[in-house]
Amino acid sequence: MVSEPGTFRSPTGPNGKSESFDEYRERTVAEAKARKHEAGLEARLAALETRVEQRFAALERRFKARLEEVIEATALGFGDLRGEIDQQFDEVRERTFAVDERAELVRVARLVKACSREVEELRQDIAELKSRGKGKGRTVT
User: Fold this and answer.
1) Residues whose CB is less than 8 angstroms from the CB of residue 20 and which lie 6 or more positions away in sequence, other chains included
2) Which among 21, 106, 107, 128 could bridge 8 via Cys, Cβ 3.0 to 4.6 Å?
3) Main-chain dihedrals φ then ψ at residue 13, nearest 5 degrees
4) pLDDT above 60 (res 140)
5) What pLDDT does residue 3 have?
6) How many CA atoms lie within 13 A of 64 on its CB side?
């Protein structure tokens, strides 16, 4: 097979097709452009990936800082709540003690009244016995 001067046919094309020199040159130039374009895309993707990783790192740092603030605020809030609950508990305990003391005073007062009644009844019995003539010689006041 003789070809025209300036042409080149070789089974170097895709799938082993024979192609002319011009076709070969066009194909290789197109492939080089595609590789160059892919390299540019890869570089842009690498740069984008780096930026995304940096943004995620920054977001993570901010999130951790905010989380620490929330944890601290929660701990302080629970501390305040615990203090308030302790204060209310102390107030209730004091009221309970006051109520218990009042109840004890009322119980003692009732007991004093009951004893006073018994003492009065005993005095009346003693006075009655004296008036009948029994128990002379002893004086009861």
Assistant:
1) 7, 8, 9
2) 21
3) -70, 175
4) no
5) 47
6) 6
Domain positions in the chain? 14-132
Question: Would you state the structure tokens that stand for residue 20, as one six-digit string?
Answer: 């002319």
- Tell me the Ramachandran region of residue 2: left when phi exceeds 0, alpha when psi lies from -120 to 50, beta otherwise: beta
Q: Token pair for residue 15?
A: 């799938």
**How many whole angstroms separate alpha carbon 133 and alpha carbon 24?**
157
Residue 126: CB partners within 8 Å, gap ≥ 6? 135, 140
For residue range 30-87, what is the model confidence (pLDDT) as tens digits?
888 888 888 888 888 899 999 999 999 999 999 999 999 999 999 998 888 888 999 9
